[in-house]
């Protein structure tokens, strides 16, 4: 059971229900006793009333049974009542001969209760020994009154149901109180859970401890402490990157100036100039890698901004694609690569919420990559498509393509499919993937319908 | 250096409209750069190209110089001791000094760049940069500063004087038919940007011509031949149109 609430509820409710059940068992037994006592009292009353009506005249007994003796029993259960008045020796004076006699011997003014069967039905019987009023005589008569158990059973049942109802009501009350109490006490915990669930992944915001209960405060404090340390680590990491970048760039700038100077100097002969040009090219590649690494590092910074204000900026994709194509056109022309943009009216105004610089970097890397990997003259086509929830940026080329088994790997940093390509740093597609994840999109590689080349689809969520 | 592409795009466009001629020499520059080694190499390079360069190694040195001297342009590093490049720039603009400022910086987060351009910098170049690119940007700045009233459109060695309606390639006048002229004018007015075939055709319709796409292609082919030495080229972009742009040095 994963829910704390359910667990707590179970461990409070289950014992309560068990205690209640145990109590019901005890109650059931008690009802038997209570009902029996009540019936016995009635039987006793009735037996006494009958006994007192006995008259003895010269050894002959005469009895007048008053209706009151039986009115005691009148109720809706239509119990059958029998009686028998016998002499001590067992001779019937009045009543019903069939009524069983007391199983044990009686003494005067003593009563005895027992259950027996009368005409096929269980009856409770009192046998009451009534001392005869004549002095000096310990003789007595035995008055027996029997009543069927219908009323007794009904009384027992009523008593039990009454208790049962009370218990059920009690349980219901416990349950309601439990739900309210749990909801109320666990509210801070649930609120904390909700707050955490609502937070953007990767956020470095701290939580407000304010009115947190004592039990939660250490947890929240620990989390805040962790976030603060992480923030600090990231900040120093970013500062480290910025410092490194500054130093490297300055060094590279000096190197480039020196090379530029050497290449312009009349004292340097053409062979040496070729060498300088080669060094310059390597230097430029090096600085390109530095810039790309910095780009990757800055994606993280932008991620935070995007999370804080996801709708801060909107990018019109067709416009952006046009501008990236224009920027890369001279490079494509140099490699005899035909660049094209495929648009129709449906996607002319397609836009996404994203920092324009990021989408630009993404598209630039995709198209740049496609142009650079064409081994012979061909074409690179950019198209925009609209899917129900996504805008699709599709870049397809007529180049050598990427074998399916390599398609996952090309997104790894520094992975290069073609080791002979000196221009490629192996970071372009890694940047594409990072930016895609930053923007909540996805990137997939395919073979275009024509069967050759590569088709890259970038899906970015449409606003709303 | 395609570091921050959205800025680079703007920059390349500006670069593309710069004429690679040497008519801006004898210009006086202030180089504000705290790294003495870089400063000295840049000075030597710019000296070689005929610029008169004065060096300042701190922000307040530059500030002092700027109070007494006049410069045609300032090359400004941002991370400076004593007085930062940002403060210097802000102070300069607050004093209504409109001297062109080209920022050269090794710190190029996007926010920084946008901020500095907003603050009044005219252009931005990320370190490390090639001297040719630096010089091209400089020329561009100087030309813009001097020739605001002089509407000359350029793309590499190709220029178009909108007053005289004359195209020049490497300084030599190009001979063009009226239709070629109309097409090229539409292109150079927006060099670095695509012009759709429809727009080009509409331009020609004013010459009382019915222009078929085929005819337009013919003009483009002819123009391409005539532009061969200019460093500029007409690129066809499928689905977009034609674009006048620079010829890339290496693939």
Task: Based on the model shown, name its key terms.
heterodimer; A: 464 residues; alpha+beta; Beta-Lactamase; Helix Hairpins; Heat Shock Protein 90; 3 domains; five-stranded antiparallel beta sheet; five-stranded mixed beta sheet; rod-shaped; B: 251 residues; alpha/beta; Rossmann fold; Arc Repressor Mutant, subunit A; five-stranded parallel beta sheet; four-stranded antiparallel beta sheet; 9 helices; elongated
Note the overall shape of chain A. rod-shaped
CATH architecture of the largest domain in chain A: 2-Layer Sandwich
Task: Return residue spans of chain A where pLDDT drops below 50 for at least 5 consecutive residues.
Answer: none
Terminal CA distance of chain B? 14 Å
Helix and strand composition category of chain A:
alpha+beta
Rg of chain B, nearest Å: 20 Å
Oligomerization state of this entry? heterodimer
- What's the CATH C level of the largest domain in chain A? Alpha Beta
Largest interface, counted with CB-CB under 8 A?
Answer: A-B, 55 and 47 residues
Number of helix segments of chain A? 8
- Write the element-wise H/E pattern of chain B from the N-terminal end onward: HEHEHEHEHEHEEEEHEHHEE
CATH architecture verdict of the largest domain in chain B? 3-Layer(aba) Sandwich
């Amino acid at each position: 059971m994963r829910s704390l609430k359910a667990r707590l509820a179970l461990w409070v409710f289950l014992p309560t229900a068990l205690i209640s059940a145990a109590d019901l068992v005890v109650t059931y037994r008690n009802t038997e006793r209570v009902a029996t006592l009540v019936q016995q009292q009635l039987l006793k009353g009735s037996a006494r009333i009958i006994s007192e009506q006995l008259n003895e005249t010269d050894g002959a007994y005469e009895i007048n049974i008053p209706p009151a003796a039986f009115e005691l029993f009148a109720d809706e259960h239509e119990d059958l009542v029998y009686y028998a008045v016998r002499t001590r020796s067992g001779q019937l004076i009045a009543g019903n001969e069939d009524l069983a006699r007391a199983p044990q011997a009686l003494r005067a003014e003593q009563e005895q209760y027992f259950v027996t069967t009368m005409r096929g039905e269980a009856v409770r019987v009192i046998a009451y020994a009534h001392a005869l009023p004549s002095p000096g005589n310990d003789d007595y008569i035995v008055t027996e009154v029997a009543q069927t158990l219908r009323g007794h059973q009904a009384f027992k049942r009523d008593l039990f149901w009454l208790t049962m109802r009370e218990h059920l009501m009690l349980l219901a009350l416990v349950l309601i109180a439990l739900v309210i109490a749990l909801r109320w006490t666990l509210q801070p915990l649930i609120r904390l859970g909700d707050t955490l669930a609502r937070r953007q992944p990767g956020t470095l915001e701290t939580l407000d401890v304010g009115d947190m209960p004592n039990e939660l405060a250490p947890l929240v404090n620990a989390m805040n402490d962790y976030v603060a340390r992480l923030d600090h680590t990231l900040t120093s990491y970013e500062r480290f990157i910025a410092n490194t970048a500054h130093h490297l760039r300055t060094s590279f700038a000096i190197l480039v100036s020196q090379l530029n100077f050497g290449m312009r100097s009349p004292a340097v002969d053409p062979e040496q100039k070729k060498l300088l040009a080669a060094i310059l090219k390597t230097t430029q590649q090096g600085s390109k890698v530095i810039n790309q690494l910095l780009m990757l590092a800055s994606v993280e910074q932008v991620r935070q901004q995007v999370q804080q204000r996801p709708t801060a900026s909107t990018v019109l994709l067709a416009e952006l694609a046009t501008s990236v194509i224009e920027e890369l056109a001279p490079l494509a022309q140099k490699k005899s690569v035909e660049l094209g943009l495929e648009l129709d009216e449906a996607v002319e105004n397609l836009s996404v919420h994203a920092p324009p610089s990021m989408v630009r970097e993404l598209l630039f890397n995709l198209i740049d990559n496609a142009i650079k990997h064409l081994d012979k003259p061909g074409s690179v086509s950019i198209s925009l498509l609209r899917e129900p929830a996504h805008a699709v940026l599709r870049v397809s080329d007529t180049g050598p393509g990427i074998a399916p088994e390599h398609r996952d790997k090309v997104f790894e940093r520094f992975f290069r499919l073609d080791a002979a390509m000196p221009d490629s740093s192996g970071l372009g597609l890694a940047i594409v993937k990072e930016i895609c994840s930053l923007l909540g999109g996805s990137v997939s590689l395919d073979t275009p319908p024509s069967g050759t080349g590569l088709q890259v689809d970038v899906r970015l969520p449409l606003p709303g | 250096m395609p570091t921050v592409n959205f800025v680079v795009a703007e920059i390349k466009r500006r670069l593309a409209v710069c004429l690679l001629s040497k008519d801006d020499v004898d210009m006086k520059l202030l180089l504000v750069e705290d790294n003495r080694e870089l400063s000295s190499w840049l000075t030597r390079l710019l000296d070689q190209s005929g610029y008169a360069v004065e060096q300042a190694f701190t922000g307040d040195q530059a500030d002092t110089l700027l109070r007494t001297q006049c410069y045609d342009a300032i090359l400004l590093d941002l991370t400076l001791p004593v007085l930062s490049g940002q403060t210097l720039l802000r102070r300069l603009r607050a004093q209504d000094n409109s001297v062109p400022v080209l920022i050269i910086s090794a710190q190029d987060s996007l926010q920084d760049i946008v901020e500095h351009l907003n603050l009044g910098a005219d252009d931005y170049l990320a370190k490390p940069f090639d001297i040719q690119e630096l010089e091209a940007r400089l020329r561009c700045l100087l030309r813009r500063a001097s020739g605001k009233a002089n509407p000359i459109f350029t793309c590499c060695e190709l220029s178009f004087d909108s007053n005289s309606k004359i195209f020049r390639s490497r300084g030599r006048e190009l001979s063009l038919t009226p239709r070629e002229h109309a097409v090229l004018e539409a292109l150079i007015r927006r060099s670095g940007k695509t012009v759709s075939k429809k727009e080009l055709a509409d331009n020609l319709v004013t010459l009382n011509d019915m222009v078929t796409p085929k005819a337009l292609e013919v003009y483009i082919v002819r123009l391409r031949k005539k532009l061969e030495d200019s460093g500029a080229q007409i690129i066809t972009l499928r689905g977009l149109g034609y674009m006048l742009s620079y010829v890339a040095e290496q693939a």
